[in-house]
Design brief:
Elements (H helix, E strand, L loop, with lengths): L2 H4 L43 H12 L22 H7 L2 H4 L11 H18 L11 H18 L7 E5 L5 H8 L3 E5 L9 H5 L6 E7 L11 H10 L3 E6 L11 H4 L3 E4 L4 H7 L5 E3 L3 E2 L5 E4 L2 H11 L3 E4 L24 E2 L2 E2 L12 E4 L6 E4 L2 E3 L21
Parallel strand pairs: 1-2, 1-3, 3-4, 4-5, 6-9, 9-13
Antiparallel strand pairs: 7-8, 8-12, 10-11, 13-14
């Protein structure tokens, strides 16, 4: 970004009299806008020329961070890259042309998708119901805390304004509580990285609205005292909130609802369990690189998910174009990050002595696990990607059947 020239707000670039675009002459009859609907004062808009507008916003757009232009080592619960085909499905006219006020009997298909997903999530978590309204993880956290606050207010307990958060918590936990207008109270962790139950006992009273927990916690450790913690919190009249950021390892083993959690947000993937239990038809991802010999380089986890898909008899399709810069997998260099990051948290070692870490930036899925490569020219076999560069059209030989 050219911060020397374009580090200003658009209003700071405004010069009186400048104009980026002039509207066409009104070709319709003139109508007077009722006085009650007219501005009392001129709209305070910047006055800039077209070139300044284009340069300003194009320059700022370069500050947007995403998986298309950079790497994030740990990722965020809801930043995980979704294949482009998911966007295409979401943009199907059956979804995009819906109107929130159209008759219910005209949206039965969308309603069935909505209700089926709600019921599946309830079964997976052991909770009674779900809302799909939140648009992201932090938005879901805020929604859950607002529900908790409304619950206490409905019961006449308006003094419950405190939320207990472990000192190892994900940063959005206290942030969401603060946005909800609640007071954050920190509970300490023990030397082994778990919630200190004795410290918790001294924090519980009738001013506590909820306790927020992630399991496995942010240190990657399974909180073994949750049944006792949930009982203590419930006994004082408060509720338990489960951050679903690390829900993957829990699926098929235990459910948040069975552990005593009252509210949760799901923001992670759950491939193996869902492939086994939810009648998945196809597994698909994008890729950081698709080698011309059919090997797929993508975020860590893609390889193991492809293995699960193969085991379950589910086809795996990868979306993207083969990379001529990588004719074979031998040309790919996988960055090995500092393994100590996997053994510690905030400078404190959480793994037992003698345990060794391993931290690759990506993994590689071999072509025998790939059913097809979805490109702008059609679907190719991973063993026939050289044809992508010679074909200028789609024919039956491109397609995988």
């Amino acid at each position: 970004m050219n911060n020397k020239i374009y580090d200003k707000l658009i209003f700071e670039l405004s010069k009186e009299g400048r104009c980026a675009y002039s509207l066409h002459q009104n070709g319709f009859q003139h109508y007077d806008i009722p006085a009650a609907l007219r501005r009392a004062h001129k709209a305070e808009l910047p006055e800039v020329d077209e070139l300044t507008v284009v340069r300003h916003y194009t320059n700022h757009s370069g500050n947007n961070f995403g998986v298309e232009n950079g790497f994030y080592p740990l990722g965020s619960c809801t930043m995980k890259y979704n294949p482009k085909i998911n966007e295409e499905v979401a943009n199907m006219p059956g979804f995009t042309n819906l109107h929130p006020l159209q008759p219910a009997d005209t949206v039965k298909g969308a309603t069935a998708v909505h209700d089926t997903l709600r019921h599946c999530l309830s079964a997976l978590t052991g909770l009674h119901d779900f809302t799909l309204k939140p648009c992201a993880g932090a938005h879901g956290e805020l929604t859950g805390l607002m529900i908790i606050r409304a619950y206490h207010e409905a019961n006449g307990e308006t003094k419950r304004t405190k939320v207990i958060v472990p000192d190892s918590a994900h940063g959005t936990n206290p942030a969401s509580a603060a946005v909800c207008g609640l007071e954050i109270v920190e509970v300490k962790s023990t030397a082994n990285g778990m919630v200190d139950v004795d410290d918790l006992k001294g924090l519980l009273d009738d001013s506590v609205a909820a306790m927020m927990m992630t399991n496995p916690n942010t240190l990657g450790l399974f909180e073994r005292e949750i049944p006792e913690i949930a009982k203590l919190v419930h006994d004082c009249g408060a509720l338990m909130y489960y951050d679903g950021a690390n829900l993957n390892p829990m699926l098929g083993v235990c459910r948040p609802g069975d552990m005593g959690f009252d509210v949760t947000v799901i923001s992670d993937n759950m491939p193996a369990f869902v492939m086994q239990n939810e009648k998945v038809d196809v597994f698909t991802t994008a890729a950081d690189a698709i080698c011309c010999d059919g090997h797929v380089v993508n975020k860590v986890g893609t390889f193991q998910n492809a293995i699960v898909a193969k085991y379950m008899g589910i086809p795996y399709f990868v979306t993207g174009a083969p990379d001529q810069g990588h004719p074979t997998v031998d040309t790919v260099h996988i960055e090995m990050r500092d393994p100590n990051f996997t053994l510690q948290a905030m400078g404190v070692r959480t793994a037992a002595e003698g345990v060794k870490g391993y931290y690759p930036a990506f993994d590689i899925t071999p072509p025998h696990l790939v059913s097809g490569v979805v490109t702008d020219l059609g679907i190719y076999s991973p063993y026939d990607l050289h044809r992508y560069f010679t074909d200028g059209h789609i024919d039956e030989h491109n397609l995988v059947v």
